[in-house]
Specification:
- By secondary structure, the protein is mainly beta.
- It has one helix at residues 125-130, and strands spanning 10-17, 20-27, 36-37, 46-49, 55-58, 70-76, 87-96, 102-105, 114-117, 139-144, 162-172.
- The protein folds into two domains: 1-29, no CATH class; 31-172, Chitinase A, domain 3 (Roll), CATH 3.10.50.40.
- Helix content is 3%, strand content 34%.
- The strands form three sheets. Strands 3, 6, 7, 8, 9, 10 and 11 form a seven-stranded antiparallel β-sheet that branches. A two-stranded antiparallel sheet has the order 1-2.
- A hairpin with a 5-residue loop joins strand 7 (87-96) and strand 8 (102-105).
- Its EC number is 5.2.1.8.
- It catalyses: [protein]-peptidylproline (omega=180) = [protein]-peptidylproline (omega=0).
- This is Peptidyl-prolyl cis-trans isomerase.
- It is an enzyme of class 5 (isomerase).
Length: 199
Amino acid sequence: MVVGRTSGSRVLDVAESKGVPLVTTVDVLPGRAVGETVAQSKGEPVVTRADDGAPTVKIPKGATAPSELAVLPLVRGTGPQVQAGQLVTVQYTGVTWKDGKVFDTTWGSKKLPLTFRLGVGDVIEGWDQGLLELPVGSQVMLVVPPDLGYQGTSSKLADQTLVFVVDILDAHTPGTGPQVGKKAKPADVSPPATSTSGK
């Protein structure tokens, strides 16, 4: 149904099963960030990408974790800016600053991207702040201090500075469908959700 369709397409499939009509709507999104690569600065965690776009993060040896949220662009997308209240779909990998170990990821053959509502507490505060107004299609590294992560919770990551590499695949207001392809206007851990182990 979706083979050969371009990103941003919406496909409607009508079928029948045991005499019952079934209607399926599929929004086709890209699987990774697409845009201009941004050079990384010395001293930042180093991100490399596999052929499929899956990131690997290496924390610089002896580097001190920042005490405030760091939002570091890796790929600059050309889609509309992400706004609070929108449904945002992302691919991401999260590692701890302390040892660089992956604690969560959506990348993999049996994994799916994450969709959440931005700015309403669905995810940790570091995401709500760090992804706001970034263009769809971007890849960004978020370095999240404990107070904007899982501090004050029972999570094993409560006292950890976390590094996320996030590919923003889509952002849209509920009920309007995907915005892929539109140009920007001028101007024990599950996904980082507050409902389970986040802040």
